[in-house]
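[Structure tokenization] protein backbone as discrete codes

[Encoding] learned vocabulary of local backbone shapes

[Begin record] amino acids and matching fold tokens:

___
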Amino acid sequence: MTVKNIGILCSGGDSPGMNCAIRAVVRTAISRGIQVTGIKRGYAGLLRGEFMQMNLSSVGNIIQRGGTILQTSRSPEFQKAEFRKKAVDILRAQHVDALIVIGGDGSFNGAMALWKEHQFPVVGIPGTIDNDISNTEYTIGFNTAVQTAIEAVDRIRDTAHSHARTFLVEVMGRNSSAIALKVGVCTGAENILLPHDKVNHQKLVDDINRGIARGKESSIIVVAEGPVAGRSYDIQHVLKDMYHLDAHVAILGHIQRGGSPVADDRFIASQMGNMAVEALLAGNVPSVTVVQKGKVLMTDLANCTTKADHNYIEYSGLAETLSI
């Protein structure tokens, strides 16, 4: 397999550190005499032919920036075979020999389809704050999102203490428990509500009252958002209507996706971008960069096309023990 021109795109939700991966891909490729074509707005931009030639200056001064300079989107039409064929035809017409996709499991499924249906060489880089991709311990953006949420909860706790209030602080993650668990442990939350657990409102009230009995004047309950954001409001209404407990809601939302990436995200994303290019040049496709046992490695892309809530779920017992 001869690779002279590598395409790169970001797909799905953005995450801090994507720019670090883009930078690493571009600089590694150029150092090896390979051209890089940036594709704007993910698969949707690919279908519209939104290409830009990238050079060293294209990725200058971006390592500290959140989001993605290539921008991203979701593309429902890419789920159809005829549009994937169109995408490959467009890539080949632009003389793009291989594609690096930064995104989550949905993005990887799209990349896998390009390989299975058209043998177009693809490599994935896992980028999602949810940290919920199978067979990798880490996805780019997770630690930055966690740090952002921790800082927000610390501030909320100040006002919760000042007013002797209970706060339901909702974090992102959809069906992943990772953000909620790490944020809950790191902020000393009195309770952590995971997306796949049925809410035990009586236990919540009992725990809060137990704290009040020993002189605790405020409580923080970290809530994983689950499939639909705003879950905290339903919990708030039950607590108020059935248990006469007045709780306030703070939904952190998309602030967790933005901001300058922390050191771990910069470092891991840089390694992944470098390894993705080397994998393509070695003909190691379809593959994906992953973190396993703390090291960045390559594995088959088919191993990472599903969601998994395996990261941090083991710490649910720790969170419960420390919240007494």
